[in-house]
Amino acid sequence: MELTLNSTVELNNGFKIPILGLGTWELKKNDCVQAVQWAIEAGYRHIDTASFYQNEKQVGTAIKDSGISRNEIFVTSKVWDTEQGYENTLSAYEKSIKNLETDYLDLYLIHWPKKLRNETWKAMEKLLNEGKVRAIGVCNFSVHHLEELIEKSSTVPVINQIQITPFHFNVELINYCKKHNIAIEAYSPLTHGHELQNLKILKIGKTYGKSSAQILIRWGLQHDFIELPRSKNREHIFENADVFNFSLSKEDMTILDDFDEEFHILWDTNDWV
Fold first, then answer.
1. Active-site amino acid positions
2. Helix (H, G, I), strand (E, B) or coil at 16
3. Rounded distance, CA 85 to CA 110, Å?
4. Rg of the chain's alpha carbons, rounded to an integer?
């Protein structure tokens, strides 16, 4: 099926999530409001935030002022480390929806696999059962964290949001998620800017008349990852959405797959207990 900006992925609970979203990590104050407004103008209908980002109010303001109905925009937020635990998570959820000026979240995620993750998950299941969130998932979970969660819970996460690019291509984790029908969301798919001048990426981009950022996003989309590029630049936000009028060849996908050098933008959680 040909991908478009309106394409979605069906999650394991039946809800659908847009395949391209705007990441908002490190977007502050008016930069965040403008970025979300520009993304919505460009056609994005998926915004990813977190309590830790301290920009939920700005995200909520931008969505409210956009004139687009709330039910047309998929909104994700996350439980931060200090908010974990059963009662703390329920309180954190209330703070997030108040900041976002919404009655519900489309997706609620555990931000990192910390010690209280199982108690946190029970609280998220309660929110799910009460209809306060439409789906629940995790971020940065390694295989053993997912195994533990699935073993101790009746609810399989709909998503694992992880750092994944051609430079960090964790095949074992990807295969585990696919086996258990856990969708993969890629944060920082643009390597936080570190590899945008990589000569091999630039060479492939020249073949298609596309930027390095567009090549990296398209690579993820063709692997069926949900992509969350972040920018506060209007031109880049629109450019990042202009990835549906070309396809990478099998040969170029293979070349990109072989870039893996375990490049971590943030922490590697494989050795986290």
1. 53
2. strand
3. 11
4. 18
Rounded Cα gap, residues 218 and 240, in angstroms: 9
* Euclidean distance between CA atoms 164 and 171, whole angstroms: 10
Q: What are phi and psi of 259, to 5 degrees?
A: -75, -15
Contact 107, 74 (CB under 8 A): yes
- Confidence label for 75 from pLDDT (cuts 50, 70 and 90): very high
- CATH tag for 17-257 (out of 3.40.50.720, 3.20.20.100, 3.40.50.2300, 3.40.50.1860): 3.20.20.100
Record the pTM: 0.96
Residue 60 and residue 178: Cα distance in Å, rounded?
A: 32
pLDDT, tens only, 93-144: 999 999 999 999 999 999 999 999 999 999 999 999 999 999 999 999 999 9
Contact 27, 53 (CB under 8 A): yes
pLDDT digits (tens, 9 = 90+) for 12-45: 999 999 999 999 999 999 999 999 999 999 999 9
* Contact between 163 and 194 (Cβ < 8 Å): no
What stretches of the chain show up as alpha helix (H) in DSSP?
Answer: 29-42, 56-66, 86-100, 117-129, 143-152, 171-179, 199-208, 212-222, 234-241, 250-257
Cα–Cα distance measured from residue 243 to residue 42, given in angstroms and rounded to the nearest whole number: 12
